[in-house]
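Async update (no meeting this week)

Hi team, since we skipped the sync, here's where things stand on the single-chain job. The sequence we agreed to prioritize is pasted below, unchanged from the tracker. I ran it this morning and attached the output directly underneath so nobody has to dig for it. Comments welcome in thread, and please keep replies under the output.
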Amino acid sequence: MKSVSSAFLYACLFCGPVSATRPNFVILIADDLGYGETGMMGNDEIPTPAIDALAAAGIRCTSGYVTSSYCSPSRAGIMTGRYQSRFGGDQNPTGKRNLEPEAGLPESETTFVTRLQAAGYKTSLIGKWHLGTVESRQPTRRGFDQFFGFLHEGHYFVPGPPYNDVLTMLRDTTLDPGQRVRQGDVIRGNYTPISEPKYDDDNPLLKSNEDGELETVDVDTYLTDAFSQQAVDFIQRNTQSPFCLVVAYNAVHSPMQALQQDLLTLKRIKDDQRRIFAGMLLSLDRGVGRITKALRDSGLTDDTMVVFLSDNGGPTAELTSSNAPLRDGKGSVYEGGLRVPMIWSYPSQFPQGRVERRAVLSLDVAATALDLAGLTIPDSMDGRSVVDFLGNGMSDPLHDSVYWRMPRGKAAFRDGNWKIVRPKAGASFELYHLTGDREESRDLAAEHPDVLKRLINRWSAMESEMPPLR
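Output:
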């Protein structure tokens, strides 16, 4: 690892001038959290006081978008500030496909965390990576001084079986459709097209050593709580130097496992699947509260930009996730797959308690962090800094258009409040006007052929910049 002095020299050559006052960054990524699940979005079924408080202390973006409705490509966009299609990052490896050398973020791409690290920031990733398992693509080779978590798409929340202290619900297609069978504290049900994957195979929990090498660790604590504790510890160790902390929770991603003690407070929810989901969200919210409290107790709140977002929309059948009032969910290019809960909080620069209805992208995290750190935003980034947009009330839109491309022929493009959607290969593009129709319930393609043609042409122009989908 570079010394501080050499890091600053490198920053001058690689990233541009370094600001005299450099804020901290905490990026909180929820996994598969639906648009309509938190109190800040109007849902009072499951208490999320910490997430709601963060929204009240910052700006809640009701048109916050990710660039894919699957985990890995979405995270590739967040980490680079670039449309992942530009570097062939459209695929979402699962299971043993994570072990393939080409899986994950190509070495040709530079994360925004790498740029902060070069400028003297302390950096840490806690939680889910899902951007490569070969050594050159591991977190400690992509800008993170420290890593604690796992490399694949998911992980069980407690070791097992047996799974102690939790209620577990697992998908099992050997049962009749709709059937559920309970044995002790494990429920099996046939409610999705696939059985529960073996998430932990070839996917141990890992912690980096002083040389940046990853070593297997045993964790007995419920994983969401363990990640939160690691985040608190990192903050408490780094009160005297600027830092970038990415906490990439695997909650509320399957497998469905909730602590029994959390379920005791949720007896009013009668359905087992929904109650387990609620317990998982409770622990996620508790973690957000612990992290924001650690910042407050350390006197760092005013000097820290906190961003909270989900990596994509929720999979309803799998998790009971609500993306209301949006259409569809994870894996889709309708709004329910791409529009996510999003908060930006930075008390010394951003107003508090504001709602921003114009489009903000997950790609903007990278550009904003570099801007606030006094570093140059590369021309290759598609993300833009939100400093003037959110902090100074810029009247112009941050993004006049948003592009999406996903496997199986899925595509979408938003231009102002117009949006086209191609839901699958071979289908025609549909046209929606999102003002008054967030639900995408009225296809206006036949009524506005000129608008449809214009947006298809704009999507095609963007598509011509991308390498072929592999």
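Quick observations from my side:
The first strand starts at residue 24 and ends at 30.
Residues 4-391 form a domain with the Alkaline Phosphatase, subunit A fold (CATH 3.40.720.10).
Reply here if anything looks off.
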